[in-house]
Amino acid sequence: MNRKLFLIPLFLLTTFAFSRMATAQTAAPWAALLDPQTTEKTNQHEDEAYTSAKDALDEGQYDTAVKGFDEVARMRGRKADAAMYWKAYALNKAGNKAQALAIIAEMKKTYPKSNWVREADIAEQQWRGTANPESISDEELKLLALQSLMNSDPEKAVPMLDKVLQGNNSPKVKDKALFVLSQSGSDKAQQILLTLAKANNQPDLQKRAIRYMGMSGNSRNRVMLKEIYNSSTNAEVKKAVFQAWLMGGDKEDVLAVARTEKNPELRKEAIRYIGMMGGREELRQLYKEATDADAKENLLQAMGMAGDAQGLTEAAANEKDPRVRIHAIRDIGMFGGEGATSTLVTMYGSNSDLETKKAVVNALFLHGAGKEMVALARKETNPQMKHELIQKMSLMNSPEITDYMMEVLNK
User: Fold this and answer.
1) pLDDT of residue 102
2) What separation in angstroms does the CA of 300 have from each of 97, 274, 284?
3) Domain architecture of the chain: domains with CATH
4) Residue 176: is its pLDDT beyond 60?
């Protein structure tokens, strides 16, 4: 009786072990499950064989790559599905399309849940000559198909892309189609892009097309963008043109708009984009031409975006309008860079106007110049300005400020 009781758990344990072994045979040898060191060696060998085959593929040695990927696939390990895909790819590159399609079919059957199945579907359609994105219902597959068209014959690809854009596809798929069109140098592709950029029946698609026109950076598109801006009455379309000019680095066109645009919001937008494009000289020239305070403040902010500390300093030193001068001083503190501290300290000492001095203190505070503020507070004899400095320093944290505050408390 005791012997029978002992044999029951032994039988169950043996049954469970053989069950695990049968399940694992499709992924890795049974011995590897028993010995972690064996598993590690097997994985290392698989990785080395896979890398070697990929190197051969990248170098155009397709026969060698096929043999290497076949070796990895027969291991039935972690990279078996990927190896079968790349084996098929190498076979197709070597001119063996029929064999490549057979391997793809085998891979999809053996590993139906593999992440490589989608890539395999696209490859299969492309090799059979049926990779038409318009006929595919799965959005992710459409995106992959559109990507594959970048390497196809433009004369065949462009009409397909046009159908995708005119069809009932998601904005994500249409955006991908626009991107592919923008990368094509064919006249037909560029004409489709231009037609969409001018059309106003699909506003979102129109703005995307405009932005992609800017990415190409060719002279024809620059002329067309200017035409679209001047002919449109839609502020959102005009802003899309600004983005396209930014992508193409067309400062001259943006500068022309900043000088001639009657709409205050769009003129402000043009100034902002000049700052984003690093147009320091252009902004300084516009500042000299400006007559109203709002325009000058917009220009000062753009100078800050462009990192033009010198332009801000010149404006702060020469500006007669107190409001604009204070704005310039504040922007020095925010955007002035490494030289801002010495500039502000010099400005503090050379000005007697209290409002200007307060603006300098605020700028030093924004710049985190605690050490310099302590030095100014020690020398300051005006109670109002001393109070201003101490008030700002109370919001800051530095060893110099802590020491100075202890001196104030001990007096």
Assistant:
1) 93
2) 64, 12, 9
3) 46-125 (1.25.40.10), 165-249 (no CATH), 308-411 (1.25.10.10)
4) yes
